[in-house]
Each structure stands twice: as C-alpha cells, then as structure tokens.
Structure to design on (449 residues):
C-alpha cells in the first residue's frame, strides 16, 4: 500500500496511525481517504487532487486486508466485479463511506450500488471537480450519520436516566440501575450494592460476593484490575461511589473506551440522584406514618396494619385501646410541656411491654393503640395489665408527685368482630367500661349486644 505524502515510520508503543491522521485531517476540514485501484497512475492523480484539498490519502491495490475503520472514505475501482458485490463486501467490514469507480456506463449497476449503501458512483475518467464533489458529500454524509448516531445514543441515555428516576423502591432501583450501567458502558458485568440492597449482572455468585466485599472508591470513581477485586477474568473494574452508602462496580474484559466511560458516568450520576430520591421518599413515607412526638405509628399506619391483618391473618389477634386517665388535669396543673413529656414516657412504657412485631401507635391526643398478632383475648388482657402497671410506674423528674394511670379496652378477632371497624368499636366499648369502673383497669369489650 502506497501512502501520500510519505509517512514517517511509527515508533513502537505510539498511538495507531489513523488517530493522528484524523486529528490532522479534521484540523484542515479534510478526511482520511483510501483509494483502491490497480491502475497506480490513475490512483496517484486522484490522490494528488485530494491531498491538495487537505485530505490524508493512502493508496491500495485491493480492499481486502485493509483496516477499513481507519478511513472516512474508500474510493474503490470495482474493475470487472459487480459494483453491488464490492460495496457489500466493504460495508460488511466497516463503517467507511464507499465511492464506487467504474469504467462502464451502467445505470442499473450504479442505482443498485447506491441502494446497497454506496455514497456515490463515478464513471472513469473522473474530473477533479466531480471527484471533489463526491468526496465532500461522502464526508458530510459520514458526519451526519455520526451525529445522528451520537444523538440516538444520547437519547437512549436520557431515556435510561428517566426510567431510573421513576423508581422509588431501592431494590427495584438497584436491579434497573445495574442493567442501565451495563448497557450504557457495554460492560461485561455490573454489581450495585449497599448494606441491605444487592443486584448483579454478568457475574457468578462468588464473583458478585467478591465485588460486594471490595472496598469503595476514595472519590466518585476509581480504576482497579479485576484481580484486585477478586474477579481475575475481568481486565478492568471501575468502582463508583453513588452516595448514600450505595456503590457500583463495572467490569470489562477489554479497556473501556472514552465513549463507554462517558455513557457510564452519565448514567451513574443519574442513578446516584435516583437513589437519593428513593431515600428521601422512604424517609418522607416513614415520617408520614409516624407520630412526630412519640415516634410511634400514627392512626393512618395503625388502620392500614389492622386492615392487612384482617386480610391475611389465619390466627386470632387482639387490639388494645388505651386512654390516659384525667390527662387534661396534667396539662392544666403541670403545663403542656410536661404533658408532652408524659406522652413520650407513656409511649416508651407501652412499647417496652410488647413483643417485636406487635404494633404500637398513638391514635390521637392521649389515646394509644396496640395490635397483638397471633394473640387471643386472654393474652390481650394479660398484656393490657402489664401495660397498665408499666404506665402507673412512670415518673417524670421535673414533675414530682405526678402519677399517671391508664384505662384499657381489649377486643379480639374473629371472636369479637369480623372487620377493622367492628374490632375498634369492641375495644372502645371495653375502654368505656374501664372508665366507668373507676378507671386504671383493663376490661374486655366483646361484641355489641
């Protein structure tokens, strides 16, 4: 293959030739062009014209064996071959634009070549003006196709980011995020994890565990070898800090390109934002279901839990309805600040007398509720008595002489009620029965007479 102008031999270890060529050609608004023609005199004349226009030109006798991706345009004399066959063979091996040259005036062959992807079809001998026009159009077409491909890639990244931002569940987001990172970077494997969320793609169980144990990056991104991360089949691993305790590891079996890293970083930042949104949503949802003073479940959360028990429980369960006795006197005599602290201490006392998995909530004001799954009415009364004694033992350091008592109504399902409203009504009847019996006691409500 002959090169115009004369090329300087490339030293070992330097960048491939076409990269520097493309930079020089771009600086002069030119392109990198290969002329494939067995007629060296004719090809040299074509090369002279294109070289004077600022293009980087190489000559070749045959397109087979050429690294076609190193060129923007291939000007190819089809010779005695069918133009379509030559165009197909070249287009199958690279994204280079093809200008077909032929000595035959064959309109059908020209149209067929254009339909198969040729940028132009020229009949020899070609005038310099016609050649320049064909090359210019081929370079413009290549630029537009590249720009379109970049726009499509950017659009795909934006769509992936939008889909990530729609997830508010951390587990679902980790799964979707691992897929999005792998697609954006054309990566071999991806792992996304935190202390309680894990998702992986393209990894065996042991490989995923090795990455989960890998120490996080010191900044947003850190490059490591696969061997250093416990996955030696990976040539490179990029560790990403997604914030909020979330990390990601993206593995490659070959060095990632600049475009791969660019796509990866874009999606990683969107994934980081999505995890932040999910955490804020989770916190807001938790706050919406908790009483701000005591930290217990609020009435809405209690109602949801009770409804779920009626839908799913196959065992009896009980409800305790609590009301502090004469609590208005506490506020009137000791002040609302002491009253608020009293509610906090009562909440702590009640929560200390139930099992893990039992539901304790503040129903409103000085009323509390306790739901005891897998506990019949007899168990409910025992727990109620334990709570009553615990509340009676509450003392406030800055309210000497203040004694708190509580009246408790107990009801159980399905014996006393078949739905949530009925069970609350039955417990409420037990509460009023306790109020009517001098307070500070536990009474079973039972079904309505």
């Amino acid at each position: 293959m002959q090169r115009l102008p004369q090329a300087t031999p490339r030293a070992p270890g330097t960048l491939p030739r076409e990269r520097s060529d493309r930079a020089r050609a771009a600086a002069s608004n030119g392109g990198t062009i290969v002329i494939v023609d067995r007629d060296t005199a004719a090809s040299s004349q074509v090369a002279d014209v294109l070289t004077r226009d600022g293009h980087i030109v190489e000559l070749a006798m045959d397109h087979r064996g050429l690294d076609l991706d190193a060129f923007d345009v291939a000007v190819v004399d089809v010779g005695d071959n069918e133009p379509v066959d030559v165009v197909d063979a070249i287009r199958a091996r690279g994204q280079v634009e093809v200008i077909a040259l032929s000595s035959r005036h064959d309109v059908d062959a020209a149209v067929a070549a254009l339909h198969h992807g040729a940028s132009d079809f020229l009949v020899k001998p070609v005038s310099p003006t016609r050649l320049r026009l064909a090359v210019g159009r081929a370079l413009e077409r290549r630029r537009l196709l590249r720009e379109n491909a970049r726009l499509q890639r950017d659009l795909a990244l934006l769509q992936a980011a939008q889909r990530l931002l729609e997830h508010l569940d951390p587990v679902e987001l980790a799964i979707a995020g691992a897929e999005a990172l792998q697609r954006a970077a054309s990566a071999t494997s991806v792992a996304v994890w935190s202390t309680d969320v894990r998702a992986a793609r393209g990894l065996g169980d042991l490989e995923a565990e090795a990455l989960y144990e890998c120490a996080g990056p010191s900044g947003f991104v850190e490059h490591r070898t696969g061997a250093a991360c416990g996955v030696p089949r990976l040539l490179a691993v990029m560790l990403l800090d997604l914030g909020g305790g979330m990390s990601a590891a993206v593995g490659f079996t070959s060095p990632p390109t600049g475009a791969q890293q660019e796509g990866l970083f874009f999606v990683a930042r969107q994934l980081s934002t999505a995890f932040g949104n999910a955490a804020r949503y989770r916190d807001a949802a938790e706050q919406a279901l908790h009483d701000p003073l005591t930290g217990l479940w609020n009435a809405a959360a209690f109602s949801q839990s009770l409804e779920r028990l009626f839908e799913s429980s196959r065992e009896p369960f009980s409800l305790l309805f609590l009301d502090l006795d004469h609590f208005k006197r506490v506020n009137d005599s000791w002040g609302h600040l002491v009253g608020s602290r009293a509610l906090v201490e009562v909440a702590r006392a009640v929560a200390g007398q139930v099992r893990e998995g039992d539901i304790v909530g503040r129903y409103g004001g000085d009323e509390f509720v306790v739901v005891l799954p897998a506990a019949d009415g007899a168990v409910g009364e025992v727990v109620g008595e334990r709570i009553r004694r615990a509340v009676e033992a509450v003392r406030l350091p800055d309210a000497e002489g203040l004694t708190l008592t509580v009246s408790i109504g107990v009801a159980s399902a399905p014996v006393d009620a078949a739905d949530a409203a009925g069970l609350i009504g039955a417990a409420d009847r037990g509460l009023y029965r306790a109020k009517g019996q001098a307070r500070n006691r536990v009474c079973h409500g039972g079904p309505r007479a």
About this structure: The radius of gyration is 39 Å.
